[in-house]
Design goal:
The protein has 416 residues and is an alpha+beta fold. It has helices at residues 17-29, 66-74, 103-131, 143-149, 155-188, 198-224, 235-240, 249-252, 254-262, 326-343, 350-355, 377-380, 409-415, and strands at residues 5-9, 32-37, 41-46, 53-57, 78-79, 81-82, 87-91, 230-232, 265-268, 271-274, 278-285, 290-300, 314-323, 365-370, 383-390, 393-400. It has a seven-stranded antiparallel β-sheet with strand order 8-11-12-13-16-15-14, with helices on both faces. Helix 3 packs antiparallel against helix 5 (155-188).
Length: 416
């Protein structure tokens, strides 16, 4: 046997142990003899082609009793060194007895260990679905709603949800199906070890490589591609950003803006410091589904506000979404409204969402809501919200203050 080593990627998991055996035996017939099993890469030495037999136990070597290993060795089976989740034995003696001479014992051994791994795979698949769910409150089972709900997310996150997540789910569903099928066949004693391996290997290889390439690509994108999102709390930087489609607070309530503006900076000796009672922030962004996302956020706290109970100060938050199409805007709006209301502590129900809708000439959708006593926290802040859509533009306004927000619909409609 040559000292030269050839490394090959093993695309088989525990659910493919019989296909992996056939793959190793095929390589042995071509002169590649297994010397080490890693978690993903196997080492092979060059040697003479041989009819080597391989058997794989679904258990790590360190978990197998030494007495059991000695029995395999006494029967002519050599254990391959490695760190894989399974243990590989081989023999060049065609007359060597099988590690399990009792079929019933073999069946129980494999079923017991494969069943525990099946449960682990199911739990892992559920966990992946849970951490990747786009909705904080529940799963979105309809893939169409799932797609449109992601419209305002950063492009890498959209890729994660729409490409990598389905591939991971498909990958784990495939593993779960294979485990269930294999365990069922072992119990029914209908499985044949002569079953091929090539098609199984190709399918596993395609799915595994696709996930790896996409994950690496996503990592490179996040690390090296500059983030297009701009977010600032600098008053000068915020005012320097001009957005003709966004209703700034200076237009919404000019008289209140003058007072806020004059108190935005307070003097402390020769230094200017931000007024801690006033926060002002703007952001503007874009992604693959939204060509433009802009917002302005102004909060003026009452000097008597101690945080408990909340005091209705002056708050103005406007968000403008400009989608690639009116369809994206409409579908995104339908899911976003509920999330926005829940985020502002409104008591949300389907009936209430229907009742807040009203007609306004020139708009495809208009809805207004003012907090009631059932909304508790939002009611204490006297929160009002406005949802407007025209074509591919969708605007969300959250306001607390003396102005009737609904009376300002014309101002926002004129910009759309």
């Amino acid at each position: 046997m040559s000292d030269r080593i050839k490394q090959k990627i093993c695309y088989f998991g525990l659910s493919d142990i019989y296909q992996e055996q056939n793959w190793l035996e095929d390589l042995a017939r071509r002169g590649l003899l297994l010397t080490y099993t890693g978690y993903f890469i196997y080492d092979f030495a060059y040697g003479e082609p041989t009819e080597r037999r391989y058997r794989i136990l679904p258990e790590k070597r360190k978990k197998i009793e030494q007495e059991e290993l000695d029995i395999y060795e006494s029967c002519g089976w050599t254990c391959v060194r490695g760190t894989h989740a399974s243990t590989v034995f081989y023999t060049d003696d065609q007359n060597a007895p099988e590690p399990f001479t009792d079929v019933v014992t073999e069946k129980k051994y494999y079923v017991k260990r494969l069943f525990s791994t099946l449960i682990t795979s199911i739990v892992t698949a559920i966990y992946i679905l849970w951490i990747l769910r786009p909705n904080t409150y529940s799963f979105i089972l309809n893939p169409v709603d799932f797609y449109y709900q992601l419209a305002d997310q950063p492009s890498p996150l959209i890729c994660l949800y729409l490409v990598i997540c389905p591939l991971l789910v498909l990958f784990y569903l495939g593993i779960i199906f294979k485990y269930v099928r294999l365990i069922w066949q072992l119990k029914r004693e209908t499985f044949k070890r002569t079953y091929g391996f090539k098609s199984r290997r190709y399918v596993n290889m395609i799915l595994t490589n696709a996930i790896i390439v996409l994950m690496v690509g996503l990592f490179i994108y996040v690390i090296f591609v500059p983030d297009k999102r701009v977010m600032t709390s600098s008053f000068k930087e915020a005012l320097a950003y001009k957005d003709a489609e966004l209703v700034r607070f200076s237009e919404f309530d000019p008289s209140a803006w003058d007072e806020v503006h004059s108190n935005m900076i307070v003097r402390n000796g020769n230094n200017n410091i931000d007024n801690p009672d006033i926060t002002y922030e703007t952001s503007y962004d874009r992604n693959v589904m939204m060509t433009k996302m802009s917002s302005e956020d102004l909060s003026v706290s009452s000097k008597t506000d101690k945080g408990n109970p909340p005091v209705a100060g002056l708050n103005y938050h406007v968000q403008l979404y400009k989608a690639k199409s009116s369809k994206i805007a409409a579908r995104f709006m339908s899911s976003n409204i509920e999330n926005q209301l829940e985020g502002m502590n409104f008591d949300v129900s389907e009936r209430r969402i229907r009742d807040m809708k009203f007609k306004y000439s020139g708009l495809d959708y208009a809805a207004y809501i003012r907090a009631s006593k059932t909304d508790e926290f939002a009611y204490a802040l006297d929160t009002q919200m406005l949802f407007l859509r025209k074509g591919n533009k969708y605007v969300v306004v959250t306001y607390s203050g003396p102005v009737d927000l609904k009376s300002k619909v014309g101002l926002f409609a004129s910009k759309m």
